[in-house]
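User: We ran a pulldown and think these components assemble together. Before we commit to crystallization trials, I'd like a predicted model of the whole complex to look at. Sequences follow.
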Amino acid sequence: MHSTNYVIRFVLVMTCVVALVLAAMATLLQPIHKANEALYNKRGIIQAVETKLPKPVSEMTDKEVKDIFDSKVEQYVINTDGERLSEEEVVAAGYPGGQAENIDMEKEKKKDPSNRLLPVFKYEKDGSDYFIFSVRGNGLWDAIWGNIALESNFNEVAGATFDHKSETPGLGAEIKDNPNFREQFIGKEIFSEDGEFVSITVRKGGAKDPDHEVDGISGATITADGVTAMLENGLENYMSYISKNRPEKVKN
Amino acid sequence: MAEETQVKEAPKEKKEFFGKKERRLITDPLTDNNPITVQVLGICSALAVTTLLYPSIIMAVAVIFVMVFSNLTTSLLRKYIPQQVRMIVQLVIIASLVTMVELSLKALNFAVYKQLSVFIGLIITNCIIMGRLEAFALANKPWQSMLDGLGNAVGYGAILIIVAFFRELFGKGSLFAGSPIEFKIIGPTQDFLINTSESVMFGWYTNNNLMVLSVAAMFILAILIWVQRSYNPELVDVS
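Assistant: Here's a predicted model for the assembly, 491 residues in total across the polymer chains.
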């Protein structure tokens, strides 16, 4: 049996050593972590227009993702009134990078809706533009987020990607893991025939309205409802921007 | 005289670097003393992480790393660890190794890290690791402790992979989903959708959603235990 004095000294030394080693490791690896994270987000953004890309994002190397993002994607930040903000204004709002990719959606979600900053990514291919919007919401266990790409008529969906923090693998996590889920969104419309915003609903038991609904995932009803709510609220934020830029004539 | 024989024996023992005893340290946990099927430890993580094969393999590798090095560290420190706080010390060792695994994975392969982040943290709560530290590493030399850790971790990982194989095959109809070599084996391809159209093989097969739930792991584990014990009746009532 060791003396209390020894125990205290041992624990103190152990704590210091462990803290030092872990802190050093975290600090040293942080630049790599940050770069990985930024790249991962870029992957998610361009994956929203996957059908327009030269090849599937999952087959691209990190460099190809970066090249496409840097050369083909124009990014800018807007406010909820649909006005485009300058880089200085974004920096002043607390994002030193000043770019749309720097916007922290979690932070924006907590703000009052009228003060939010929203990233817009414009992907250009063969003369037509695709607008990628970022959305964020809640799944069953934790946050879920995604990027949804609209055609230049701001009605038809060109693609969508989703990600999550800790949804159940095999169930809720399918929103990200199963490409069939996100592919369903392609070609859906966010406005009804009367030009009213209806968003897109993930329907339990299968889509009934072919224009505005997609099939749900069995065993993941709450995550699916989270996706529905996220799309509705997220696109609502962009609504001023969308109605400003939307062509007057309603499709159909 | 007595001193002399001792001196003579000491190097002899060292020569047995990988003798019969050491071999048993590795082979025992694989079969007759398997941490999951015989000692019934680490059940919770075996239930939680085995929905897909690929994450299970990464998980097994991570557990092997954590277990080998936590056993080694504990064994090296065994004479200095105060009895009163040994559990906390063991926990700190495990937790820091797990954090290291997590940080390295995040830097090396971000995609896999994203997929596994919840599971990697779960290694800390794996009772096999703490069990081996408590039962073996605290009382044995570093080399033997390392082997013991390796044996137990591989024994654990093997069960994990077997369970995950069946769960993924029957639950999702695929194997290695999420990895670069993902392939779809049975059942319709648009597996979770209502409007099923194409199929790969055995298109009539409907994915068994039970297999995705943790209960399925319990069934498969029970079958494994049953098979193992009918093969080796000595194991009955061991645990």
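Chain B has ten helices and two strands. That may be worth checking against your pulldown data before setting up trials.

User: Thanks, that helps.
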